[in-house]
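Section 5.1 Outputs to date
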Amino acid sequence: MEADFSEMRNELQSRDARWRRIQLECQQLHTELLKIREYKDMQEIQIQHQSSCVQLTEQPENKKAELLLLAQSQEHQQKELNKIRSHLYREEQSHCSEQERMKTEISALTEELHQKEITIATIMEKASLLERQLKMELEIKDKLLAKQQLLDFRYRVIKSENTHLKEMV
C-alpha cells in the first residue's frame, strides 16, 4: 500500500513537473511572439522611413525596384510570421490537450486514491474488530484452561483421598 501511494505521489510530482515545463515553454513562445511582433513593427517603421527617404533621394525607376524588393522582403517576413503563428497555435493546442488529459488523469488518480483510502479504512476497522474478537476468545480459553486445571487438580486430590481411604479400609 505504501509503495502504491509513494508511486502515485511520484507520478503526480512527475506530471506536475512536466506541466510546469509546458507552461514555461508556452510563456517562452509568447515572449518570442512578442519579440517578433516588435521586430515586425520596427521593420515596418524602417520600411516606411526608407520608403520616404528613397522617394526624396532617388529617381522614379530606382524607387520602383526598391519598393518591389521591400514588398518581397515584407512578404517573406509575413510568411515567416505566419509560420511562427501557426507553430505557436499548434503548441497552444497541444498544451491545452495535454493540460486537459493531465486534469482528467489527476482526477482519476485522486478518485482511485480516495477509493483505496476507503478500502484501507474498512480493512483497518475489520482488523480491529477481529483483534477484539481474538482477545475475547483468548480470554475465554484462558478461563476455560484455568477451570480445566482446577478440575484436574481437584480430581487428583479426590483420587489421592480415594486411594488413601481404600488403603485405610
